[in-house]
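We give its fold:
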Amino acid sequence: MEKKKTWERVDLTIGFINNIKPTDKRIFFADLNMTSLVLKVEPTGHKSWFYSYRAKGRKPRQINLGPVTKISPANARAQVKRIAADLLLGKDPYEERDNLKTELTVKEALTNWSNNSLTVSNGYRKSTIKTIRNSLNNWIFKRSNNPDVRRRYSGLLDIQNKKISFITSEDIKKIHRHVGAESPIAANRLIEYLRMAFNSFLKNKPNPCKILKREKYEESTYNDYLDNIEFERVLNNLFVIDSRNGLLRRSYYEDKKLNPVACCLLAFQLVTGRRTRSEASSLKWSEVREDRIILQETKTSKHGTQQTFYLSDKAKEILQVIRRERMQKYLPGIENKNWFRNRFAFPVDDVRNKFVFPSREFGKLVAVGKECKTPYQVDVRATWKKILLMSGVERWLKPYATRHSLASFILNNGGNINQVMKVLGVSLATAMRYAKLVPGSELDILNKIGQKKETPGLVQVK
């Protein structure tokens, strides 16, 4: 015969609970103010909360609320009130618990969303997919190999193994604050990506990843650029031709220890305004025509829409010199390897021949156990930094400043907003932002007020 349970009604306070001594029998205490809330004490000393209830048309049941080490008396009472309210609406906590067992964790849901929804077929660009996945890997899945990112994992709230319905807006805000302490823009982007993903999980339910605009970090726009004098000086240091053969001046690049491919890439960016990774680095010869380049799509173009950009004489000259460099004979064998020529000339079947700015590091180990798999030049930061110093530009500019510099060069030399829009492939709003970079440009027009204009002399008509 089952032994009768020992019950006692008491005021269940933290002090009382801590002073309970276990016995050789299981003990039950009913809360004095909420008799349906029960504290169970095992002979082992384990203490946990239970809620006794009866759903409509069902037998009496008890549901485990959790151990006292994690749930205070106040929290236990709050849970009881919430469950009681659900019972009035016809919701059975046992059924809710069964549904919770099948609910996905954040990690599982984000992985499914990334694999099935975040795809090119659903209208996302490859660059966008890569950016979102990197952000989630860095801050949610904690898979980054970057030591600076891994250093910041200490204190970062881990939500990947939590059930989706357990995620609160406060959890998301904590992650936002932690990431934003050193990377405000990365924090804002991460929360936006989570909001997109959670919208697909929760359907019509409240999304905990929605953060008010005033709670996000203010993002400062990067606007630095080269003035006209700096522009010409930097371009001249990037692109140096040997007048004797029409090729790059080998002695110049070797003496200065400059990567000639990176220099040509930066010079091309400076005179065309193309973005480094998505539009310039990966440029293929198949996309180059005599007076223009045709890109399959750009960062700001519609998905799958080709963009045509016409080339200036300087841009055409850069491409023509690179063509001559590629025509230099390639000789196989370690004894024929050349520091300079082997940056442009490769075996006939080498994939790098497809690209205007090939990478000499392709196929080589660039780190311990890491092989370079990109056949075109990508990282130009070291070369850019050296060129800036050579040109007397002591402040640091991002390589992206080549776009800003070209926009300001156009506007400073009699160009207009429409020309900036066409050259850079941007909207009117973005072109107007570039116009603000040119200080005092509005005075060029205002200062003409009141100036006497010369009247052309009369021409005698015979």
The chain has a mean pLDDT of 85.
